[in-house]
Amino acid sequence: MTATTTATTATTATTRVPRRAQASHPSGPKPAPAADPETTREQALAVARRVTDPEMPMLTLEDLGVLRGVAVSEDGAVTVTITPTYSGCPAMATMRDDLVRSLGEAGLAATVRVALSPAWSSDWITDRGRRALADHGLSAPGPAPARSGPVALSLLPTRRSLHCPRCGSGDVELTSEFGATSCKALYRCTSCLEPFEHVKEI
Ligand SMILES: [Zn+2]
């Protein structure tokens, strides 16, 4: 009974492949059954990994550390988990919509879940993401501050040791603690005079 059910399912999912061809090549590549959760998960993960950040499109959500995981239930429902860089990040809605649309275009109905714990850290930006930032003239964050114990609050600008992404000089000055987005600060290189953005450490 089980074998009959399996054969029926396989035939339904592979209507373009004659049954005789399948039977005579049992060790050949087999099309993935539509209902296999692990195959669906791998497919969904491959799609989700290609979705880029709307504000820094040189980074994928995976490079940014925002994409936390993809899960598929037994009934094939896809759930993508993301963690916002900042709790008030206005790009979150766009990230969610981009994920749902991209997965939908791949034939996968997905739900996006936002996980706030553990909180995102700039340490989660991948090495590939850091290289992409530098390639586009942005300064990548240094190590994030320690999270344990009391949090010191300062009214002074955060001190950072940076290098100009254009010429490599360490002679830089802060021009604004906030850039086009709250996750970036504005700097200027006093050697080559190039202004640049720095992705903050959090
Ligand atoms: Zn410079």
From TrEMBL:
Residue numbers spanned by region Disordered: 1-43
Lineage: Bacteria, Bacillati, Actinomycetota, Actinomycetes, Micrococcales
Protein name: Ring-1,2-phenylacetyl-CoA epoxidase subunit PaaD
Source species of the chain: Pedococcus dokdonensis
Annotated ranges, domain MIP18 family-like: 42-105
Domain PaaD zinc beta ribbon as annotated: residue spans: 156-200
Listed InterPro entries: Fe-S_Maturation_MIP18 (IPR052339), FSCA_dom_sf (IPR034904), MIP18-like (IPR002744), PaaD-like (IPR011883), Zn_ribbon_PaaD (IPR056572)
Pfam family, one: Zn_ribbon_PaaD
Bias (Low complexity): 1-15
